[in-house]
User: Fold this.
Amino acid sequence: MRAAADRAARRGTLQRGTVRVVFLVHNKDAWDSIGEVIQIMRASSDFEPVVVTIPHHYGGGDESRGEGRIHRFLAERGVPHLRLRNDEQTWARELLLALDPDVVFRQSQWDSDVDSAFSAENLAWARLALIPYETMNPTKNVPWDHPPVNSALDQHWHRAAWLVFVANEDVVEIARTDTLTGGSQYRAVGHPKADALRKMAPFWPSPEVPAKRRRVLWSAHHSILDGWNDFGMFPQVKDDMLRWASEDLGTEFVFTHHPYLRGTLRRPESPLKSADFKDWLAMWRALPNTVYWRGEYAPVLAATDLLVTDGPSMITESQVLTVPTLFLERDEHVEFNRVGERIVSGVHRVPDVAAARAIAELISEKGDPLASTQRENIRRLFGEPGAAQRIVDTILAEAQMETSGLR
Assistant:
């Protein structure tokens, strides 16, 4: 009975003159995936976008974290929004029913990231949509759920979604074979995050900016445990990176990491304990040419001369800006899919810091031989700028087709 009622409720939307779209947001680091879409909708007479900040449960933990951080982030940028505070989560369903949305976007495909009121099952009465927070998935994903599914393309939110927007037709082709729905809800439009990177103003967080010195950004992934995608190399390379920085005082180094890394270090199975990380970080910060950066990474990526990373997303995003990239590659990471194989053609795959240093010197002397490959990769993977506008246009066209069919 509930499923039938949900279907009837969904059919009953799209009947007013504008399309009311609710964005449930909890992660400021993923704002660039949706920010321009909301901006375009606000300027259009065809849409009523409503942003709601909500608590989250990163990593599927029971403890809920409030929405204060994303609220402050949006307030600083002048983005109007409603707030659902931590102690108000029992009112989540009431709030959404009162807003009466035609379409609901959620930042994450993971139901466990947010309150159960925002799960795919509990929002089945609405038209759900997704712009993935990552630009694209480059790997043959670790099996998830029972029976196992491709977690990047076939979770409950994907299956329930009215529309899922992805970067290119290669991803759509994978969805056609790897999803229960045969990829029918997938649309290839590029990705707003790539467009945001293209427009990013460079910023380098150095206390002093002397005459031009080489800048190296080191970005560490969080997957340092075994059994997920196994890309993280921080425990294996941290001391060698410290040595590189201490021996190369003519280069400025900025260290940043995935937001999940410090939480992973606190887990009992972590190969590196939080106290050891703290001791290492003190040595890193003590050097005259190093910075530990917890702010936005994209402006720093736009300012760097060279990226050193073990992260599968960073090796994609660096190519948008044609940044020479040294990919510290862990032997046991999950396989790349056909999208990932194209991505790694634009980066230097190295097994350790010694190899990275050698290639870094060659790039400094002669330039990056992979620059043209990176430009071709980005053309193939993202297409022309304008992904946010294409998303808005697609929503409007699909809504108009549905309403004409209902008349």
Notes: The chain has a mean pLDDT of 92.
